[in-house]
From TrEMBL:
Annotated InterPro entries: LysR_HTH_N, LysR_subst-bd, WH-like_DNA-bd_sf, WH_DNA-bd_sf
Protein name: LysR family transcriptional regulator
Keywords noted in UniProt: DNA-binding, Transcription, Transcription regulation
Domain of life: Bacteria
HTH lysR-type domain residues: 1-58
Family: Belongs to the LysR transcriptional regulatory family.
Record lineage: Bacteria, Bacillati, Actinomycetota, Actinomycetes, Kitasatosporales
Entry keyword annotation includes Transcription regulation: yes
Gene3D superfamilies associated with the record: 3.40.190.290, Winged helix-like DNA-binding domain superfamily/Winged helix DNA-binding domain (1.10.10.10)
Residues annotated as signal peptide: none
């Protein structure tokens, strides 16, 4: 099994077309087809069902695809690791983070990292923890900031706890203060409040809804489905209140009233994760160090 054959196989699997796949990997279509057939002979199984105008994966092809993608991603990581020059003058870091962490935690750390290593490209992917865990597993990210506990079942990941962050309630200064004007808000006080809620799969949505149900009520959504910036904008527009991380509220305070949650409050645990079977590249390890020492 040759590395080039895996490249051609993944290209056909993703384009579902031999000619377009050949263009994608810059090879003549007959050569690509010959290499795919050679790979099928070596494996002893057809990888594609070839009907006129319709290319689909066989069961063997479906089984090989995630493994081939991981091999190619690992090879790409190794290539970048070797190409890095002394003192991290060149390279890249592929970092995943939830949108709230991109807003609250990362700007200052990434600024410090960029000032120290201006030649390192920072590739940031925003997503929920479930999505980021999947991207880590297939080798598309070097590191990810995720919310613990990880979704179950999870691939083999190494996690290091980074911080435990309080959640707060944000509302429009023009709207009545939640909790009948008290300086803190209990989760029970959110019963009857119209909530601005994040999309499904968002860690903060799941945490907030679970906390409300633990108090014996179902939350009432004024609007739902947004990312962090949209949720804050809807709160400013007096559509409702929202539960957000303290760091996000501190950075986005203009046009928002921030009210702490009464003890024991709500918290979330943030961890830095990477694949257990592959060490992060050198530049990613340096960013990891800066995040842990921040």
């Amino acid at each position: 099994m040759q590395f080039q054959q895996l490249q051609y196989f993944v290209a056909v699997a993703e384009t579902r077309h031999f000619t377009r796949a050949a263009d994608l990997v810059h090879v003549a279509q007959p050569s690509l087809s010959q290499q795919i057939k050679a790979l099928e002979r070596e494996l002893g199984a057809d990888l594609f069902l070839r009907a006129r105008g319709n290319i689909t994966l066989t069961d063997a092809g479906e089984a090989l695809l995630p493994l081939a993608r991981r091999i190619l991603a690992d090879a790409d990581t190794a290539r970048h690791e070797v190409q890095e020059l002394v003192q991290l003058r060149r390279g890249r870091v592929r970092l995943g983070a939830t949108p709230s962490l991109c807003t609250g935690l990362l700007p200052d750390v990434l600024r410090a990292f960029h000032d120290r290593y201006p030649g390192i490209r920072l590739l940031i992917e925003e997503g929920g923890s479930h999505d980021l865990v999947r991207e880590l597993a297939r080798g598309a990210l070097d590191l990810a900031l995720v919310v613990l506990p990880l979704p179950s079942p999870s691939p083999a990941l190494t996690t290091v706890e980074l911080l435990r962050e309080d959640l707060v309630v944000v509302s429009s200064p023009d709207a009545p203060r939640p909790g009948q004007g008290r300086r803190t808000v209990r989760v029970a006080d959110l019963e009857g409040e119209r909530l601005v809620m994040f999309r499904h799969g968002y860690d903060l949505r799941e945490l907030t809804v679970a906390a409300c149900r633990a108090e014996g009520f179902e939350p009432d959504f004024a609007v739902e489905g947004g990312e962090m910036d949209a949720v804050l904008g809807f709160v400013r527009a007096r559509l409702g209140v929202a539960v957000v991380p303290r760091m996000v509220a501190a950075r986005s305070g203009r046009g928002l009233r921030v009210t702490p949650l009464a003890r024991p409050g709500l918290h979330r645990t943030i961890a830095l994760a990477h694949r257990s079977d592959v060490a992060p590249p050198r530049a990613a390890r340096e960013l990891q160090r800066m995040l842990l020492e921040r």
